[in-house]
Design brief:
The protein is mostly helical. Helix content is 76%, strand content 0%. The chain has one domain (4-44, 54-214): MetI-like fold (Orthogonal Bundle), CATH 1.10.3720.10. α5 runs antiparallel to α9 (160-166).
Length: 224
Amino acid sequence: MNLEPLVLSFRLAAIVSLLLLAIGLPVAYWLAFAKWRGKFLIEAVVALPLVLPPTVLGFYALVALGPRGLLGRMWESVFGHALAFTFGGLVIASIFYSFPFAVQPLVAAFESLDRRLLDASAVLGAGRARTFLRVIVPLAWPGIVTALVLSFAHTLGEFGVVLMVGGNLPGITRTVSIDIYDRVQALDYSAARAMSFVLLAISFAVLCVVYGVNRRVWRPWPVK
C-alpha cells in the first residue's frame, strides 16, 4: 500500500484544521455575541459550502487561485508562481470548503454559555481577552475539540475541490481520496479496499472522539 497519498492528506488536514481553528474562533465569537441584525447574511456565507456542490466551489477556487485570478496574481507577483495545482492552493481551497465545519460547532458552544458567568468576569475587572481565555475557552472546550476534529476529518476526505484545484500530481496534490479513485479506475480493488478501510477506521475514530467529548466521557483536566 502506497502511504504517500495518506501522509499528504494528513499533512493537509492538520494544517487546514489548525488554520481554521485560528480563523474560526474570532468569527464564531462575533457570530455568537454580535447584536447586528444583518449577521444572518454572514451566517449564510459561512454555511454556503455545506450546500454548494464541491465541483462548483472547486471551480471558483481554481479561477481565483489561477494566473488570472486576484489571489493567483498576487501570489505569483510575490513568489513567482500561481497557486493552482500546488499544495498551497489545496490549503487555501480546503479552508473555504471546511470553514463551516469549524465555525458552526464553535458558535453553538459559545451560544450555550451562561452569560451570567461572562458578566461576573466583567464585574470582577477582567477584560475581553482575559475573559475569553480564562472563562469562554475552558467552558467551550468540547465545541473547540469538535470543530478541530470535524474540520480535520472533512479535509482528510476531500475529493471534488482537491481534484479541481490541485489535479492529480503525485507527492504534491494526490491525496488519499484521489488515490482511491485512481486505484478503482485501474481496477486495483485490493489497494483501493485497503486505503478505503483506513479512511473508514479514521472516520469512526473521529466520530467516537466527537461524541465522547460532547457526552463528557473524558475531560482535558480532572474534575475536582
